[in-house]
Amino acid sequence: MSYTIAAEIRTEIGKGSSRRLRHADKVPAVIYGAGKEPISIKFDHKDIINIQENADFYSSDLTISVDGKEVKVRVQAMQRHAFRAQIEHIDFTFA
C-alpha cells in the first residue's frame, strides 16, 4: 500500500516547541539520512493515527509532501504516549 502524508517545515525546534505542537494536535518529526541535511517537519495527528495501525506502514516506503515536494521515506522510530493513544514523535529516514 502507498501512503502520502502532508507535512510542513518546522522552524521552531526544542522541547517547548514540540509540546506546543502536541497540544495543538500536531506531531513533530524529523527526516534524516545518508549525506543529506535533516528536515524538521510537523503534521496533523489525525493524518497519521489511523494509517500507523497497518503493519506495512513500518516496512514500506512512504511519501511525505513537504512544501510541494514529495520525499520518499521509511519509518525509523516512533515515540508514543505512555497511556494515551497519541503519537509524540516520529523519526523518518530518506528512502
From TrEMBL:
HAMAP family: Ribosomal_bL25. InterPro entries: Rbsml_bL25/Gln-tRNA_synth_N, Ribosomal_bL25/Gln-tRNA_synth, Ribosomal_bL25_long, Ribosomal_bL25_short, Ribosomal_L25_dom, Ribosomal_uL5_bac-type. This is Large ribosomal subunit protein bL25. Belongs to the bacterial ribosomal protein bL25 family. Residues 5-92 form the Large ribosomal subunit protein bL25 L25 domain. The gene is rplY. It holds the Pfam family Ribosomal_L25p. It comes from the Bacteria. Part of the 50S ribosomal subunit; part of the 5S rRNA/L5/L18/L25 subcomplex. Contacts the 5S rRNA. Binds to the 5S rRNA independently of L5 and L18. The keyword Ribonucleoprotein applies. One of its GO terms (cellular component) is ribosome. Keywords: Ribonucleoprotein, Ribosomal protein, RNA-binding, rRNA-binding. This is one of the proteins that binds to the 5S RNA in the ribosome where it forms part of the central protuberance.
